[in-house]
Amino acid sequence: MDFKNILRKLQTVTENRLMIIMRDTYVHKGKRKQLVDYLHQKIGITDRFVLDAMNEVPRHLFIESVFEDYAYEDRAFPIAAKQTISHPSTVAEQTELLEVNEGEKIMEIGTGCGYQTAVLIKMKALVYTIERQKDLFDFSQKLLRTLDLRPKFQSFGDGFAGLPTFAPFDKILVTCGAEILPTELLKQLKVGGKMVIPLGKTDEQILYRFTKISETQFEKEEFGVYKFVPMLQNKSH
Ligand code: SAH
Question: Cβ atoms within 10 A of the Cβ of 89, count?
């Protein structure tokens, strides 16, 4: 076999391996359907748009393969850089609170492994997402591309600053818990827009929804206690 042939063969082997690794089987799809039924019946998610999107995103591909068998249970898992992928019920609740409409401009703070990003993209939102951990920024960028899910903009940066050049946004979703309200983000919200954000100390937060009534007025609603990874201020953490 000549060198070219060996190379071609190697390439095919690599591609086949990737296809095996990235497989989404009937078993995965079946478990996913059960998870979505659970989110509807037990958690009380009623937004069909959210449930349909979560039925489409192969969550098992966003986590370490050792957890694959549990990917469709309502569990959080460790991902790179000591972060976590949120519980499916938390993703569903946060997304439902955001009241997403097709074509809306949404900024997400905390891309993580990209699962929540994928759900928003499946809902046909225009997603702008920020992650401060390089490993996760790289991982999510690669994975979303492989799955042909395209955020409008993916940023390696600080969520506290938001994305002023792309503002204003219809919606903002913060997937990490902030000790203090990031006021810069509220400035980047359209009047009539909504921001869903967990606020509180590191061990537990309260989930809030802010609705921008006018440039200076906000309505604030509360939705119970959660535990998110912290929204960190600087790179030394
Ligand atoms: N959306 C993810 C949740 C990941 S956990 C999911 O679908 O599961 C929250 C993420 O927020 C972590 O990846 C963490 O690194 C990131 N994060 C924390 N502080 C941040 C900040 N100041 N700016 C941007 N991302 C931040």
Answer: 18
Identify the bridge partners of residue 169 per DSSP, sorted by sequence position: 189
Residues catalogued as catalytic? 86
Q: Which residues contact 207 (CB under 8 A, 6 or more apart)?
A: 93, 94, 97, 196, 197, 198, 222, 223, 224, 225, 226
CA–CA distance, 105 with 135 (Å, rounded to integer): 25
Report yes or no: 113 and 85 within 8 Å, Cβ to Cβ: yes
- Give the tens place of pLDDT for each residue, 18-77: 555 689 999 999 999 999 999 999 999 999 999 999 999 999 999 999 999 999 999 999
**Do residues 91 and 119 make contact, with C-beta atoms less than 8 angstroms apart?**
yes
| Candidate of 175, 228, 233, 237 to mutate for ligand 1, largest count of ligand atoms within 8 Å of Cβ | 175
> Ligand 1: distance of its center to the CA of 5 in Å?
44
Q: Hey, is 178 helix, strand or coil?
A: strand
What is the set of domains in the chain, with CATH numbers? 3-226 (3.40.50.150)
Helices (H), 42-162: 48-56, 88-98, 115-122, 134-146
Amino acid found at 210: F
**Alpha-carbon distance values, 48 to 32, 92, 99, 145 (Å):** 15, 11, 11, 26
Residue 62 corresponds to which tokens in the numbers above?
Answer: 């966003």
Ligand 1 binding pocket, CB closer than 6 Å: 83-86, 109-110, 112-113, 115-116, 130-133, 136, 158-160, 175-176, 229, 231-232
